[in-house]
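Materials and Methods. Structural model of 3-oxoacyl-[acyl-carrier protein] reductase. The 261-residue sequence of 3-oxoacyl-[acyl-carrier protein] reductase from Peribacillus huizhouensis was retrieved and submitted for structure prediction as follows.
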Amino acid sequence: MDLGLRNKNALIIASSQGLGKAVATLLVKEGANVMLSGRDESKLKTVQRELEELAGGKVAYCVTDITKNSEIVNLVNRTNAEFGGIELLVNNAGGPKAGAFSEMSDDDWQHSFELNLLSYIRIIRETLPFLQKQGGKIVNIASSSIKEPIPGLILSNTFRTAIVGLSKTLATELASDNILINTVGPGRIATDRVAHLDQINADKQGVSVKEMEAKMKAAIPLGRYGEPEEFANLVTFLLSEANSYLTGQTYLVDGGSIKSI
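The predicted structure was written out as tokens:
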């Protein structure tokens, strides 16, 4: 199937590793032009070289701290200058601090708000004029906690859920501009973030990381962690021309972990 992504211009947030990198990789393979972003320039340079070797779409990068609005404005303007427009947006951000409600300070709450929710709002606001020109697609990456709160992740449970409300509301407001917006929540995908959480839980329970991984995998019907590429497959479909009628929806990529209907 031709997904119709060749020469489309995409901005992928937090794409130097993990889920963002996987999405960027698949888009480049499909012929899209991709702007990478993140805070670590050395990682961004490495990913840029890797993706350019795929001989797909154009690849550029912009060092960006998405908790700072001025840097978001610069990122969006750089993307437009590099590619001559923006048609696809993937909002993504690193996971917030793990811990219980009693362990979180005002600073923890404020930082997570700025990183995991306000950044999405700001990025959509800045890219909207470009997306409106010919219709576009937005995917907001959240977490499986949008359906079932994860113990010990109070910050993620709070702000990831708010992303769903944002996406659902914007799906109605932006429909007249032919902009489709959806939310995708990853379950336990094999990324550095999940490895970090496994280490935290292993330390708390006094077991090895391997034992913790085995316990977590046993709770997943498919019996394993997902691969970033498997997550990227769905995101790429939602960004593609093959998706012409799905908007305002929430999808989980979790191997069947969440039991709710």
